[in-house]
Amino acid sequence: MSPADGEPQNETAPGPVRAVVHLVRHGQVENPGGVLYGRLPNFHLSALGREMAERVAARTADWPLTHLRCSPLERAQETMAPIAANHPELDVVIDDRAIESGNELQGRVFSDKASSLRDPRIWWMLRNPLRPSWGEPYTAIVARMDELVRDAARQAGPDGQALIVSHQLPIWMARSAAEGRRLAHDPRNRETTLASITSLTVVDGRVTSVSYDEPAADLLPVKGRDKKFVAGS
């Protein structure tokens, strides 16, 4: 008798597909002039930033990573380099969705001595921090990061682990969306320090839990928070 004739089937339904996606923020950038560099080219890791990257590489050396992705910006690729060296069997996929948030203020100086905030010509850009009015909308960042995380989870495979090197605001937006936080926020309160690792557990394409780690915590300047304006780094 066939199953179509009413015979019970012994097949077990497939279980949920689980993967972990680790979002790594790059290390400290060499930026003595206090430029809001955003997506500008030629901003590289400082000596301290390279040390931070090595800390992340050491922390993840024994992790069973199955997929690597990276923002196209130099500071992210330089952070990925020692991580990838510990996993030579994996290729690094450069993915534009992991890039820093768009910001119309990039290239301006926001140091303590020469802040562009004193320039009334930019005040109109700051009119709406809820969107925000100076750059890429928070909702757009969430959308591209959600696609990125889902795609990386699929590429990692069942019970696999993907690692993506990205930037402060995109990582915080991905975490905020996963935890049901408001997207509008005070940039000083982002829990995404330099060289930090935000790990998202993804089950059947949905983030079910978040964890956070700071392998380079003792190297962080300014009591654990580097000073960046508006869009982070």
UniProtKB/TrEMBL annotation:
SMART domains hit by this protein: PGAM (SM00855)
Molecular function via GO: phosphatase activity
Pfam families (UniProt xref): His_Phos_1
Record InterPro entries: His_Pase_superF_clade-1, His_PPase_superfam, PGM_Phosphatase
GO cellular component, one term: cytoplasm
Protein's recorded name: Broad specificity phosphatase PhoE
Organism: Naumannella halotolerans
